Amino acid sequence: MVGESKLQKKIIARLKADGWDVNKRISMSHNGWADLECLKAGGIFMEIEVKDKGKYPTDLQIYWIDKHTKMGFKSFWCDSFDMFIEKYLSI
């Protein structure tokens, strides 16, 4: 099983290779916000909540993902690299 931090590193490496700037958030004020904030030229913003395989986001994390998606941002969660790729390539 791939741990959450290893999965985050793999996702970050892929995004950086694709030209994204990626910041791993360490929450100081907004509990439940996604782990990774990702920015790309042209004003593109995406955030990703990374979970261990088989784990699900908390209700608060789902709330923020849904809210930010409704605001027009690309926001999603994943628990595997394959799940990340599927969602990433669909945006």
- Overall mean pLDDT score? 94
DSSP E strands, number: 4
Distance between the termini: 27 Å
Strand order of the largest sheet: 1-2-3-4
Helix content estimate = 25-40%
Summed up, the helix count is 3
Report the biggest beta sheet as strand number plus sense, adding barrel if it closes. 4 strands, mixed
Q: In what range is the share of β-strand residues?
A: 15-25%
Poorly predicted regions are none
Spatial shape: globular
Helix and strand arrangement:
Layout: H1 4-17, E1 21-24, E2 36-40, E3 44-50, H2 59-70, E4 74-78, H3 81-89
Can you describe this structure?
This protein is of the alpha+beta class. It has a single domain, classed as Trna Endonuclease, Chain: A, domain 1 (3-Layer(aba) Sandwich), CATH 3.40.1350.10. The protein contains three helices and four strands, in the order H-E-E-E-H-E-H. It has helices at 4-17, 59-70, 81-89; strands at residues 21-24, 36-40, 44-50, 74-78. A four-stranded mixed beta sheet has the order 1-2-3-4, sandwiched between helices. A hairpin with a 3-residue loop joins strand 2 and strand 3 (44-50). The chain is globular. The termini are far apart.
Key terms:
single chain; 91 residues; alpha+beta; Trna Endonuclease, Chain: A, domain 1; four-stranded mixed sheet; 23% strand; globular
Quick summary:
With 91 residues, the protein is of the alpha+beta class.
